[in-house]
Amino acid sequence: MKEFIPWADELSVGIEEIDEQHKVLVVLINKLYDETVKPHPNSTVVEDILNELVQYTIVHFALEESLFRIFDYPYYEAHRKQHEELKKEVIAIQTKFRTDAKAVNLELIHFLRKWLREHIMGTDKKYTGFFLEKGLKGSWTKRSWIGKIWDSVYSK
Length: 156
Ligand SMILES: [Fe+2]
Description:
Elements: H1 16-36, H2 43-70, H3 76-99, H4 106-123, H5 128-133, H6 142-154
The structure holds fe (ii) ion (FE2).
């Protein structure tokens, strides 16, 4: 079965750990799609996915923003504002669903796909060159990430 959002190179920001986090968001939107296109979507499943999507979005954005602060990213404020907007939108979908389960329809899920793809490709990709220049390595694994960021900042 073709996935609603197939992972593709064009979605990669070139930093493995961030790609892994973006993949989690892709999986959640794919799951939401798969459940919604069923003849009888299970509202508990939809609610769980939406809750996870909201939570993970908040965690992921917080991680990006802390990197921006650590490395003095010049577009921090503009990027943070966009995160605020995106967070509001995904929370609005969650709220809408609580009062009207049918509100989460294909149109909304297409909106979420656009929401994620455009942010990754239009805004996130702009930070890659900056981070690599600051010494981050695209191949760092999760376990060693924080320590390495710490070292690279404090060994200056
Ligand atoms: Fe972002």
